[in-house]
Amino acid sequence: MKTYELFINGEFIPNGDREMLDVINPATEEVISQVPKATEADVQAAVDAAYEAQKSWGKLPAIQRANYLMELAGLVRENRELFARTNTEEMGKPLAQSMDEAGWLGDYIQYFAAMARHIKGEIIPSDRPNENILLYKMPIGVVAGIMPWNFPLFLIGRKVAPALIAGDTVVLKPSSDSPNGCYEFAKLVAKSSLPKGVINVVTGSGAVVGEALAKNPKVALVSMTGSTAAGKKIMKTAADNVTKVSLELGGKAPVIIMNDCKLDETVEHVYNSRIINTGQACNCAERIYVQEGIADEFIKKTIERFSKTTFGPGLGGTFDMGPMVNKQQQDHVDELVKSAVEQGAQIRLGGHKATVDGKGFFYEPTVITGCTHDMKIMKEEIFGPVLPITTFKTLDEAIELANDCVFGLTSSIYTTDYDTVMRAMNEIHFGETYVNREHFEAFQGFHQGVRQSGLGGDDGEHGLEEFLETHICYIDYDLKAGN
Ligand code: NAD
Predict the structure, then answer these.
(1) Does residue 173 have its Cβ closer than 6 Å to ligand 1?
(2) Smallest Cα–Cα separation from 402: which of 434, 377, 424?
(3) 207 lines ligand 1 (CB under 6 A)
(4) Annotated catalytic, 282?
(5) Would you say the CB of residue 175 lies under 6 angstroms from ligand 1?
(6) Catalytic residue among 89, 248, 381, 441
(7) Which of 86, 182, 360, 379 could bridge across to 27 with cysteines, CB 3.0–4.6 Å?
(8) Got the DSSP string for 89-112?
(9) Mean pLDDT, all residues of the chain
């Protein structure tokens, strides 16, 4: 069993008599590692280290910071398999998906390294003679990167890469369900030539360690990805110091399927958008609205497709799905399925917890029909391999149902009609909409939610903006002439 140590100011801090947290493999229910529970003093030490390091890191030319990022990307790529196995072991996803995710980590760091020469300010014409108005883009300072368990490797990239290229330094707090990959990353940081204190890692509960980060006055940005409930708490805590927050929160993605869609492709895209990561993705297809004319055929083909899903331990074979990340998540999915049945829906496939060789927090691939918009399963985030389906008559009705939701992260529509696409683009009120393709964002896009799905966003040039501060200067350049 591995034991990890806090990573502060370039050093691993001996655990001594610190309290430790068990990390469990959700496929086998075995304890695979222990990580330290950081105290408030540990968090302060990590923030202090990041704060001091930022003073010189922020002054380096961005292209020099990019060189460090490229070194890190190289180290991540050399260790791709180690990262993938660590990821699968601690959060359960199939190894092939972990290999993809480990690949994205290196690629994402490289993507932001290439932004070095694209951070630009502005020169704004003044109302006065002999004056320039210069708008600078500056580093924001210390970033607290608070992460969830569903994409633990990729999220390291999302927190670290834009921060570092912007000239910020980082304190990372991974989820207690999946901290190992982040500590393996810290080992590479320690090996690299990155200056001490630029990246720090602390672990522990959200209530203690997360809160301590969000309320620390030296933290300039809390960049958090996780549930809406935790995001709201962070906003309240950060409000005391008016600290900026960037929140990527939960979703309840509607999928609108029109009579004129390409049916087989649609079924395949919906399947991929629900089954990836065992349904534990913020942008997963969470609720289906299918037009009446095609509903029976869509349901039949969808049940056929979902029934072929294989699941098992991610390190024990080639499967479509692994387990749910933990027992609470498995219970949560099961409760939502039961609530749908109690409210009158029909389970057409699956609908039960499962084990493999008597172990693990698995859940059967599940298709539920006869759902209505008012059911709990159509309103709350499921975050599991469960597809609830309802029908509609007109596009107006579908758009209204889709928009009637506290979440506003991703959405999608399947149709071959140009007018329908354009109406949907203009009337679906979500941060992202996918047309005739599966749910998955690109590095160069902008991943963001409206309503209670978040504030701010990640990826691309707009995502980088979150990590920058604007400084505007008014320069009168005609002083010698006495004006
Ligand atoms: P979570 O909210 O339970 O935890 C996320 C992180 O926040 C963890 O590190 C946790 O310790 C920390 N945290 C919890 N309470 C805190 C507090 N009071 N103060 C400070 N930090 C606190 O989420 P999770 O269960 O790990 O992840 C699943 C959720 O994440 C889902 O809702 C999913 O939709 C969301 N998610 C969103 C995106 C996105 O980009 N919008 C991406 C991935 C996951």
Answers:
(1) yes
(2) 424
(3) yes
(4) yes
(5) yes
(6) 248
(7) 360
(8) HHH---HHHHHHHHHHHHHHHHHH
(9) 97
Distances (CA, A) of 86 to 80, 89, 261: 10, 5, 40
The rounded Å distance from CA 261 to ligand 1 centre is 35
Token pair for 236: 């309240």
**Residue ranges of domains in the chain:** 2-249+449-472, 253-435
CA distance 13 to 5: 6
Token readout for 58 is: 């922020």
Helix axes 395-403, 418-427, angle to 10 degrees: 30
Residue 378 CA to ligand 1 centre (angstroms): 21
Is residue 409 in contact with ligand 1, taking CB distance under 6 Å?
A: yes
- pTM of the predicted model as reported, rounded to 2 decimal places: 0.97
- Residue to mutate (ligand 1; options 21, 225, 446; most atoms within 8 A of CB): 225
**Listed residue (431, 420, 437) closest to 285, CA to CA:** 437
What are the pLDDT digits (tens) for 200-241?
A: 999 999 999 999 999 999 999 999 999 999 999 999 999 999
Residue 89 is a catalytic residue? no
CA distances from 126 to 133, 263, 475 (A): 6, 57, 10
In words, the CATH class of domain 253-435 is alpha beta
**Among the atoms of ligand 1, which is closest to the Cα of residue 213?**
20
For a mutational test of ligand 1's pocket, the pick from 23, 149, 227, i.e. the residue with the most ligand atoms closer than 8 A to its C-beta, is: 227
Residue 222 tokens, joined: 């809390």
Report the relative pairing of strands 386-392 and 285-291 from DSSP bridges: parallel
pLDDT tens string 231-285: 999 999 999 999 999 999 999 999 999 999 999 999 999 999 999 999 999 999 9
pLDDT digits (tens, 9 = 90+) for 270-296: 999 999 999 999 999 999 999 999 999
DSSP string, 123-181: EEE-SSTTEEEEEEEEE--EEEEE--SSSHHHHHHHHHHHHHHHT-EEEEE--TTS-HH
pLDDT of residue 478: 74
pLDDT, position 169: 99
Residue 468: CB partners within 8 Å, gap ≥ 6?
A: 119, 137, 138, 139, 140, 166
In the chain, pLDDT over 90 holds for what percent of residues?
A: 98
The CATH homologous superfamily of the domain defined by 2-249+449-472: Aldehyde Dehydrogenase; Chain A, domain 1 (3.40.605.10)
